[in-house]
TrEMBL record:
Protein name: Intraflagellar transport 88 homolog
Region (Disordered): 1-38, 624-727
Gene Ontology, cellular component aspect: centriole; ciliary basal body; ciliary base; non-motile cilium
PANTHER family named in the record: INTRAFLAGELLAR TRANSPORT PROTEIN 88 HOMOLOG
Bias type Acidic residues, positions: 711-727
Native organism: Nothobranchius rachovii
Keywords: Cell projection, Cilium, Flagellum, TPR repeat
TPR repeats: 136-169, 422-455, 456-489, 490-523, 524-557
Signal sequence range: none
One of the protein's GO biological processes: kidney development
């Protein structure tokens, strides 16, 4: 201080050689401060809490392994904390809440990682610890694990033990546990016990999921009347959702609008929308269960459900139920009733009107009433011009009128409104194909293949387009992918055989044609190719088997029977050949080719019927000349016109098929050609009397409807609610 007598840092007794150090730095740094045991314990508790939070965050992001590792580390640190407290003599002050949190989090992470034995062991350790209050409720989680393991008896045991631990004051918790017990009974097929538990819930704390499962149980038990009563309870369950008017700003205040916009899409409003959507789904499904399509009172039952819904808080669902009724009529093939129901929507709001008109257009298109289909497609478009299904149906009606360019425009507009409308993309590819715009068609089907990876129709169309473009190797590649999806399709196998034959690979062609014949032994062009192949290979007995099959398929075609007889003759079985020719003559007495062969065979075998057959041959030849003269005089000009037209360019879609037909016809003609005069011109070119059903079926444009009739929307679909087991 300034009042001090002695000078600061100066001394008259300074010894010789001592350094001047007024601050005492020569003594070194001060010793570090040591944490007390209590402070160390607090730091360790903070670290454990941090590990628990990190474990929970990792679980929420889906990183379950990291969450488990953090939970294990927190458990190790918590054990070290307890040991440290015991060493410091403060064992009486153990933080039980922290211990409970660590052990519960570890058990949860074991369960999430499906390590069920470890999870059960951790839960048992918590439950048996009498120091933890309300730990008995964790028997619900143990019951959940046993349910996942399908150990239903133990699951029910632990659910009931947990129910005994929960007081009557916690009604929601007791309701959830009872619902879990009911779910286990349903899994065991004990519907009466499940019904008792669900009825108890609906009488105390009714909820949508329990009401829906109660209807399912009544349906399984076959009690239709109680299903109706349960349906009435279901639609009367309050959802607890506030009015939608809260999202409408009360005034033009900017701040109010900002608040409304902020809460309109927050998590709470999303939860409300999800709850409402689930309730509507359950009610619609329950109505379809009450009104099975095969029941004689189907219409009256559906009307009863609609009336009930109209008098409830779900008034907007009445139109959807009417729509489902129309779809059910379609399943029953009752198109008239379906059309009557859908026509009632013409006076509804634009969305329902557009959907109904779309379905009506779909129905009329399937009935091939294309004018009505076009009318209702226009109506659907006028009600909602952005309805891609309506635009697709409109394009289909134009497509069948062969106005492919206009149809392509409608399909393009449908794709602009919905880029994932696969029907429009498929039909656009067909339209381009008909217009011979093969590059554009290929682009459409490649895009469609990216969406529908395993669609055999799309891959078949790609193969067909590549063949039209002359790239047979790519066509074979895509057809091989079709075979991977549908390995038993005989028409695709025949197509592969044809492509390999065109490439000159006879062995591969024989393999595919043989497999096609094995799967579908009625395809004439396959039988023809196989028969010709074995004749070329001099296996006449094998060829005879195939041509005999052709005679069974086309008994009125004399050419197959003549080929069979010729095969017998070429194999040296003249007696069998003679009998076959005689049989042909009995069925076709005016056939000149057959009579010529009979005359020759009878002469060679010195038979007494020679003169008889010679007389018949002369008579038949004379009749044939008279018919040819009449045809020539009456159709000479027409035939000349056809011959002149045949010199032009052929359609690319049929060029490969016509070339193949010409080659096969030449082979068939050469089959019976030899030096003998009676076989010189016996065969004519084969006519294409059989059409591959796969081609025309795929070429048909796909129709589209807002509401589809498929197996996924059947009345028999029964499923439990999503959130049945409480955690």
């Amino acid at each position: 201080p300034m009042s001090a007598v002695k000078a600061a840092g100066y001394s008259s007794t300074l010894t010789r050689g001592s350094a001047f150090d007024p601050l005492g730095r020569s003594r070194g740094p001060a010793p570090p401060l040591e944490d007390t045991p209590e402070e160390k314990i607090k730091l360790l508790e903070k670290k454990i809490n941090t590990l628990i939070e990190e474990s929970c965050m990792a679980q929420s992001t889906g990183n379950l392994q990291l969450a488990l590792d953090k939970a294990k580390e927190a458990d190790r640190e918590e054990r070290a904390l307890v040991k440290q407290r015991e060493q410091s003599g403060s064992a009486d002050h153990i933080n039980l809440d922290l211990t409970y949190s660590v052990q519960l989090n570890l058990a949860n992470q074991y369960e999430k990682n499906e390590m069920h034995p470890e999870a059960l062991s951790s839960y048992k350790a918590i439950v048996k610890n009498k120091m933890f209050s309300n730990a008995g409720r964790l028997k619900v989680n143990m019951g959940n694990i046993y349910y996942k393991q399908k150990n239903y008896h133990k699951a029910i045991k632990f659910y009931r033990m947990a129910l005994d631990q929960v007081s009557n004051a916690h009604k929601d918790m007791r309701s959830k546990i009872k619902h879990s017990i009911a779910v286990v009974f349903i899994a065991m097929g004990q519907y009466s016990d499940a019904i008792a538990s669900l009825e108890d819930i609906m009488s105390e704390t009714p909820n949508i999921t329990a009401g829906f499962n109660l209807i399912l149980c009544y349906h399984a038990a076959g009690d239709r009347e109680k299903m109706k009563k349960a349906f009435q309870k279901l639609i009367s369950v309050p959802l607890g959702i506030s009015d939608e008017d809260k999202y409408i700003p009360p005034s033009d205040d900017t701040s109010s609008k900002m608040v409304i916009e902020a809460i309109k899409n927050d998590k709470l409003s999303q939860m409300e929308r999800d709850l409402k959507a689930r309730a509507e789904k359950y009610i619609t499904t329950a109505a379809k269960l009450i009104c099975p399509a095969m029941d004689t009172s189907f219409a009256s039952e559906f009307d009863w459900c609609v009336d009930m819904v109209k008098n409830s808080q779900y008034v907007q669902l009445a139109n959807d139920l009417e729509f489902h009724k129309a779809m059910a009529c379609l399943r029953q093939k009752d198109h008239n009733q379906a059309k009557e129901i859908l026509k009632t929507f013409e006076k509804k709001d634009s969305k329902m009107k557009s959907a109904a008109a779309t379905n009506l257009s779909f129905i009329y298109f399937q009935e091939k009433d294309f004018d009505q289909a076009d009318k209702y497609a226009d109506l659907a478009m006028s009600a909602d011009h952005y309805n891609s299904a309506a635009l697709t149906n409109k394009g289909n009606t134009v497509f069948v009128k062969q106005d492919y360019e206009k149809a392509a425009e409608f399909y393009k507009e449908a794709l602009r409104n919905d880029s994932l409308c696969t029907e429009s993309l498929h039909n656009l590819g067909l339209a381009y194909k008909r217009l011979n715009h093969l590059e554009e068609a290929l682009d459409c089907f490649l895009k469609l293949h990216a969406i529908l990876k395993n669609s055999d129709q799309v891959m078949y169309q790609l193969a067909d387009i590549y063949e039209l473009m002359g790239d047979r190797q790519q066509a074979i590649k895509w057809l091989m992918q079709v075979i991977c999806v549908t390995p038993t399709d005989p028409h695709v196998l025949a197509r592969l055989g044809k492509l390999h034959n065109d490439e000159g690979d006879k062995s591969q062609a024989l393999q595919y044609y043989t497999e096609s014949f094995r799967l579908f032994p009625c395809k004439i062009d396959v039988i023809e190719w196989l028969g010709v192949h074995y004749i070329e290979s001099q296996f006449f007995e094998k060829a005879t088997q195939y041509f005999e099959r052709a005679t069974l398929i086309q008994p009125t075609q004399v050419k197959w029977q003549l080929i069979v007889a010729s095969c017998y003759r070429k194999s040296g079985n003249y007696q069998k050949a003679l009998e076959t020719y005689k049989g042909i003559h009995r069925k076709f007495p005016e056939n000149v080719d057959c009579l010529r062969v009979l005359v020759r065979l009878s002469t060679d075998m010195d038979l007494k019927e020679v003169q008889e057959y010679a007389t018949k041959l002369k008579k038949a030849e004379k009749m044939k000349e008279i018919r040819e003269q009449k045809v020539k005089s009456g159709q000479g000009n027409t035939a000349g016109g056809r011959r002149e037209g045949s010199g032009g360019s052929a359609d690319s879609n049929h060029s490969s098929g016509s070339n193949r037909g010409e080659r096969l016809s030449a082979k068939m003609r050469s089959l019976t050609v030899s030096n003998e005069p009676y076989e010189a011109d016996s065969q004519k070119e084969l006519d294409a009397s059989y059409m591959d059903p796969l081609g025309p079926q795929i070429e048909r444009p796909k129709t589209s409807a807002m509401k589809r009739v498929d197996d996924d929307d059947d009345f028999g679909d029964e499923e439990l609610g999503d959130d049945l087991l409480p955690e």
